[in-house]
Write a structure and sequence with these properties.
Layout: H1 9-19, H2 22-29, H3 36-43, E1 48-50, E2 65-67, E3 70-72, E4 76-78, H4 91-102, E5 106-108, H5 116-122, E6 127-131, H6 137-149, E7 154-158, H7 168-173, H8 183-190, H9 193-201, H10 221-228, H11 235-244, E8 249-254, H12 257-265, E9 270-273, H13 287-298, E10 303-307, H14 313-322, E11 326-329, H15 331-363, E12 376-378
Parallel strand pairs: 4-11, 5-6, 6-7, 7-8, 8-9, 9-10, 10-11
Antiparallel strand pairs: 1-12, 2-3
């Protein structure tokens, strides 16, 4: 099966599984602990039902939106994902080019396998750089300066990853960074000859934004996080990073009303409601349940971006109806990258875009900004909670 035979994200997931060594696929696919939040991020969208308007002229549907200071052609963008070289040898540049073609933002991770400068040169499209508060404060400042110099449009501070979630799949497969061909892994790698061939022809694997002497060799994800991340980070640190950046600034990993209000207080222009794809705190609320209470608490003081669990265009519409300004996702496009490189990413984007356009027509709306709370109800008939808890 090729990418032309993939008709939804699940098809791409299955094709990616066929093409990647097991350890690398499970790193992409897995979550933390029992993966309750990983699953519920997607299944919780079924807790909401869309309510269409009838007899609306939908001959001209506009999918555009504005978020993070960027006019985008679609109401979603491609969120940061670390270690992209694991999935395809064309790495982050392929994703950035696909995003630029679609007229949407590409989010680059600190833990990317291409440098800020490489991605900046590869794509003239809109870009966001994702940063952490690291133990090395000078390195953090350097990232901000480099992102400015490379003409990135926005900066994103991820706040849910100072400690790595317990990703037991990676412990079982023994995946390290960079991946090593050794006796324990050679059988798994050899079973995917296309991936292995490209790995041998393009053996470079570095976290390109971080000096090699700042890392140990062959670390797993837990060791890497412990080595780099500042576990003492506070809102004061977030404010310092925000003040270093003079453009749109998002905080990613917000789940509570209280934290959303703090983000407003320090001058963030956007919050990204996210559970890190279910890879951090297992048992956290599904992302979609957090959108409405946060919007009700902060009003229009800040942009809200919904991230985690999105697999369908209807998921995007539900998130917008609940109060999000836009959505973002990583796994769907990573499936596409693993399955078919840049062309795979483009097809995933096109499929989700087509789903959104079709579903907007069926919903009876012609602009993403026209999607409101009247277009969504709880599937069980109960009112959408205003969540009195902080």
């Amino acid at each position: 099966m090729g990418i032309s035979n993939c008709h939804n994200v699940e098809d791409f997931r299955k094709l990616a599984k066929k093409r990647l060594p097991d350890g690398i696929f499970w790193y992409m696919e897995g979550g933390s602990d029992d993966e309750v939040t990983l699953r519920s991020n997607t299944t919780a969208f079924d807790d909401y039902a869309l309510v269409p308007d009838a007899l609306v002229d939908v001959s001209n549907i506009d999918l555009s939106t504005r978020v993070l200071g960027v006019d985008m052609a679609l109401p979603f963008y491609l969120s940061p994902s670390g270690g992209t070289r694991l999935f395809h040898h064309h790495k982050e540049a392929a994703v950035a080019r696909a995003a630029a073609k679609a007229g949407i933002i590409y989010g680059q991770s600190t833990m990317s396998t291409s440098s800020i400068e490489e991605v900046g040169a590869a794509s003239s499209g809109p870009k966001m750089f994702q940063i952490y508060s690291l133990k090395d404060k000078e390195l953090t400042r350097d990232f901000v300066a480099r992102a400015k110099a490379a003409n990135f449009d926005a900066l994103c501070l991820t706040v849910d990853s100072s400690i790595s979630g317990n990703r037991e799949r990676d412990l079982r497969t023994g995946l390290n960074f960079p991946p090593k061909i050794r006796l324990s892994t050679i059988a798994g790698f050899a079973s995917k000859p296309r991936w292995l061939w490209n790995f041998m022809l393009n053996p470079e694997f570095t976290l390109s934004n971080i000096q090699s002497d700042a890392l140990g060799d062959g670390m797993n994800v837990f060791e890497l996080a412990h080595h780099l991340m500042d576990v003492s980070v506070t809102w004061d640190d977030a404010k310092i990073i925000r003040d270093l950046w003079d453009g749109p600034f998002a905080i990613k990993g917000i789940q509570s009303v209280a934290d959303a209000k703090r983000a407003v207080d320090i001058g963030a222009t956007a919050i990204i409601v996210s559970t890190h794809g279910g890879r951090q705190l297992d048992g956290a609320s599904a992302m979609v349940h957090r959108i409405a209470p946060i919007r009700q608490a902060v009003g229009n003081k800040i942009e809200i971006i919904a991230d985690s669990g999105i697999r369908r265009g209807s998921h995007v519409l539900k998130a917008l109806a609940l109060g999000a300004d836009a959505c973002s996702f990583a796994r769907p496009y990573i499936y596409g990258l693993a399955a078919g490189g840049e062309a795979g990413v483009t097809r995933v984007v096109d499929l989700i875009s087509a789903e959104i356009e079709r579903d907007m027509g069926l919903l009876g709306v012609t602009k993403t900004t026209d999607i409101t709370g009247r277009h969504v109800v709880r599937a069980d008939g109960l009112p959408i909670s205003q969540d009195a808890h902080p």
